[in-house]
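sorry for the late reply, my laptop died twice this morning and i had to redo everyting from scratch. anyway the thing you sent over, i finally got around to it. pasting the sequence first so we're on the same page, its 542 residues, then the predicted structure underneath. double check i copied it right bc i was rushing
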Amino acid sequence: MKQSRFLVGAALQAAAMVGALAAGTTAGQAQTSQPGWVSVSACTPAGPLIPTNTNETCGSDILQPILAGLVANDAKTGAIIDDIALSITTTDNTTWTIKLRPGRKFHDGTEVLARNFVDAWNWAAYGPNGQSNNDWFSIITGYGDLNPKAAKGEKPPVPATKAMSGLKVINDHEFQVELKLPVPVFKSQLSYKAFYPMPDSFFADPAAFGRKPIGAGPFQLVSGTPDTGYKLAAFPGYGGPAKPSIKGVDLRIYTSREAAYNDLVAGNLDLLRDIPASKLVADLWKRDLRGRAVIQPRANIQALGMPYTDANQQMLKPAIRQALSMAIDRKSIVDILFNGIGQPATGWVPPGVEGYQAGACGEYCSFNPEKAKDLLAKAGGYKGDIKLYYAGDSEVKSAMDAVCNSIQNVLGLTCVTSALSDNATFRSYTRSGKVDGPFPSNWTMDYPSIDNALVPLYSKEGTSNRGAYESAAFDALLDKAAKEDSATAIKTYQEAERLLTADMPRVPLWNPAMTVGHSPKVRQVTLYTNGRIDYSALALKE
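ok and here's the structure:
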């Protein structure tokens, strides 16, 4: 294994950084769990717990066990399975008829009915409600009526209606959806929480719901705040396919994974997701946990976002991006910083996702210093420093330092990492069109299909297209795929993915693995493809 000096230094820096974080909050220490419950490390949600307005990890981790939708992902196979839906049928991928299983209950005792989906989708799509997951409903006929365009320099007008014409309640247990265009993967998209039902009580007081959400999932929220953590008890009225055997989940808020890890080793915590990098070095975690860990691939890709505006004309040259990509020694970074847990990325779709194709990026994702130098020379070289931006309150500094050092060592350029104050500032800057250098771009799949790895990130109207990338040929293939049956559409999406090598709108870095440590009392730890723990599958030792 090649271990260059820059990477060893980065690894040591990572250990030092994580060690420094160990002085953070230790909210979970010395707490005891109730019999039959498991304690789990968690982090502070960014806002109210409303599924149509939550698209960040900490809030999603709390909401996921509480909610249930029409379909779900099977944690073992990754397959889409019916949950509240009795059937979801279509003959043209445009008009979908959805029938519900009678008798499924919300945690407030009311039955989940067709109107709970239709009302929730209309509320989320209504522009003035300002939901961050609003765009998910743009595929439905009538969405534009709820989101009228603003004249230049003016605020959007108030919509004339609050309901999409493409939604129709047939009866209590059946509704119909008409899409603007055929979407062969619509059923898979329904597994995302933006499409989950809301009880009638939500519409009376959304703010109260945000503090104490009511779902139809296997666990119900008993108590909790962002300061105290959250307690979720198994819902006795749950009638779905994921009935839990444990009595509850105690989600404890930590500001440091190091502190959570120490609690796990000391027997004060049952489950920790993402073992700290400092414990992966030299296999320290193996000695501490003695086999009490689960490692498995995660439907996630780490990449370098690239500016696609006039803020940096040099970065607009594809050859510059390709040169940077070929100058990054991905395998050494994975081996040293993550102790070989994870794998170098060879494309823009994570392994295990439907439509994944190994090597989609071709030679441009291979470490090749000589070819990287040639590409840079053919592009006319690069003047000035390369600035690599990241959020100062994230844990990516060591990885970004390693990437920057690899580029600098191979290409002879000066590459510096620049910390922005926090995640909010980072997100605002990288979406502003003013960013003039690369930045880390992490994408965890909302649902395990290739379209979710491509459309939001690289299409002209993509909701997460932070680099403002545009390609008419790429968008044309996405439009073509939308009109095809599912199997044919996958091949078209794969063709579109291969087109990205020409422009390298993001530079694939690596696909991290999921690491979960657990206490001796826990068994049967199963993870979803997105890395979340399947609490319903957990069992406790006698």
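The CA atoms of residues 167 and 340 lie 48 Å apart.
thats about all i looked at so far, will dig more tmrw
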